[in-house]
Amino acid sequence: MAEIRLEHLTKHFGDVKAVEDLSLIAEHGSFLALLGPSGCGKTTTMNMISGLERPTAGEVYFDETAIKELEPGQRNVGFVFQNYAIFTHMTVYDNLAFGLRVRKPRPPSDEIDRQVRKVAESVGLAGALDRRVTRLSVNDLQKVALGRSMIVEPAIFLLDEPFSNLDAAFRAYMRAELKRIQHEIGQTMVYVTHDQVEAMSMADKIAVMNLGQLQQYGTPDELYNLPANRFVANFIGSVLNNFLPVTFERQNGTAVIRPPGGEARPIDVTDRAAAIHGRPAAGGLTASIRPERVRIVSPDSPEATVRAKVVLVEPLGARDIVHADYQDTDIRAIASPGDRPRIGDSLGLVFDPAAVHVFDDETGLALR
Ligand code: ATP
């Protein structure tokens, strides 16, 4: 178990700035997710932690030890990759035992046996130890890969999109399993994914990256409730976030933002007036409000921030995603199936000021 500290970590491939000045700390025994779209620099960051890539600048520390100069084999890290490295001619037992059998000095056989059975139990392979891995399902192969890495008890556990080959139901199961295993063994884990649901459901802290740059580092709740910028506000959340252009006005002692169109009710942002008024650029402003926080009321309610017309309803079982058109902007709101509106209905939509974030169009930064 170790703390991982990245200090000004940078990697350039010629002109490509794969990772730029990345600094963060993953605490002992915590679960860190590196999250972002394809090409944002997640795998390169992971490879600099494992030793497969050398940084152009900056340093990686495991506790107080700088490890940039150490070979991968000297770093005591365990890997699970998407294309799991498994010995297909061996049984599950031999695959699990491998990492201990090659250790110098080699542990006694009964100790290896005890460890193999413990790990097999932990990942759900206790009944499959004698099976040849060629006869296993993709799902069980992934458990073998996880078990092989666990058994050598690395100080740090690195997982690069390990579940992307699995079917959706098993992926959800393995997410919960991995979180349980991590809690049980208490190892520091770094998990690379482009799937925000995976990151949100498992990680203690998430580093959101884009184009090699760290966008925000925080807990799932912080990213969801207090996005640092528009990229994070857009990337996090299982239903696409709503964005609307707004204008800012001061009105004797209070400050408001106003969606386009004369009929919209102003939204009170007095608590952020200084940040909005004092923003560096003279560009426009965009407000966001999550679909889960948009409240549906009757179209003639005085509470309604805007009135919009339903254009689409997506029933998801426990809830519906309602799409409503306001001034050619698609606004998504959540309704319970008992209150399902019909296409063409007029709705009032309430934007609670506490749930509204305001972003500077020029910098993308949240103003608060
Ligand atoms: P993905 O999810 O697609 O794997 P990623 O977020 O892991 O993406 P990286 O693989 O770290 O991103 O790549 C970051 C950037 O660096 C990309 O623009 C990629 O093309 C570039 N890159 C990565 N490895 C190399 C390399 N060996 N040589 C040149 N460019 C590279």
Ligands, ions, cofactors: adenosine-5'-triphosphate
Shape: elongated
Instruction: Count the E strands.
Output: 20
Q: Report the order of strands and helices.
A: EEEHEEEHHHEHEHEEHHEEEHEEEEEEE
Write out the strand line-up for the largest beta sheet, numbering strands in chain order: 6-7-8-3-9-10
Radius of gyration: 25 Å
Poorly predicted ranges (pLDDT <50, ≥5 residues)?
none
Distance from N terminus to C terminus (CA atoms, Å) equals: 37 Å
Major sheet attributes: 6 strands, mixed
What is the strand content? 25-35%
Helix content: 10-25%
Helix/strand class: alpha+beta
What is this structure's SSE topology?
Blueprint: E1 4-13, E2 16-26, E3 31-35, H1 42-50, E4 57-62, E5 65-66, E6 77-81, H2 92-101, H3 109-123, H4 138-151, E7 156-160, H5 168-185, E8 188-193, H6 196-202, E9 205-210, E10 213-218, H7 220-225, H8 230-235, E11 242-251, E12 254-258, E13 267-268, H9 273-277, E14 285-289, E15 294-297, E16 306-315, E17 320-326, E18 329-335, E19 346-351, E20 357-360
Parallel strand pairs: 3-8, 3-9, 6-7, 7-8
Antiparallel strand pairs: 1-2, 1-4, 4-5, 9-10, 11-12, 11-14, 12-13, 14-20, 15-19, 16-17, 16-19, 17-18
Helix pairs in contact: 2-3, 2-4, 3-4
The structure holds adenosine-5'-triphosphate.
